[in-house]
């Protein structure tokens, strides 16, 4: 089990949280996604180490940006 | 044909615009809904005069507030 935390920019409401949760949750191996809207922190629990590029692509697909 | 403009509070992003558009658009008689996110102005075109209570209920259902 692996857990990583990322900062996502641009989320403004619960719909944004849902979009990011859904896209990041669709990455192979991801088991749980927790998003804190106020801080932009996204904690991802997965059964394998994730590629940051995969997470970045999912966040971009949702319409937001991973903080570099 | 009737057109009315309302001010909706709390919309922060395009998802919010979509939610309000969908809910207000589901009111019987509504033909078009135009939302300006920056100003919160929602312009509703309908084939009959709408009850403000109906519009308020739809906006509330979407999760936002009609300015009084």
UniProtKB/TrEMBL annotation, chains A, B:
Coiled coil: none annotated. It comes from the Bacteria. Keywords: Copper, Metal-binding. Residues 2-67 form the HMA domain. The keyword Metal-binding applies. InterPro entries: Cu-bd (IPR000428), Heavy-metal-associated_CS (IPR017969), HMA_Cu_ion-bd (IPR006122), HMA_dom (IPR006121), HMA_dom_sf (IPR036163). This is Copper ion binding protein. It comes from Kibdelosporangium banguiense.
């Amino acid at each position: 089990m692996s857990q990583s935390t990322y900062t996502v920019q641009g989320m403004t409401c619960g719909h944004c949280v849902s979009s990011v949760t859904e896209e990041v949750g669709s990455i192979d191996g991801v088991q749980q996604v927790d998003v804190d809207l106020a801080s932009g922190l996204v904690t991802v629990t997965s059964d394998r180490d994730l590629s940051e590029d995969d997470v970045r692509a999912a966040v971009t697909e949702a319409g937001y940006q991973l903080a570099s």
